[in-house]
Amino acid sequence: MCFAALHHGPAPLLLPNAWDVASAVALADAGFEAVGTTSLGVTAAAGLLDGVRAGRALTATLAARLMERVDEPVTVDLEDGFSDDPDEVAALAAHLAGLGVAGINLEDGRPDGTLRDARAPVAVIEAVVRATPELFVNARTDVYWLGVGPQDERRPATVDRLAAYGEEGVSGVFAPGLLDLDDVAHVAAAVAVPLNVLWRPGVSLERLGEAGVARVSTGSALYRHALGAGVAAARAAREGGDPGPAPVSYTDLQDLLRVPTPLVREPDTP
Question: Which of 122, 184, 197, 238 sits in a 20 to 30 Å window from 214, CA-based?
Answer without folding.
Answer: 122
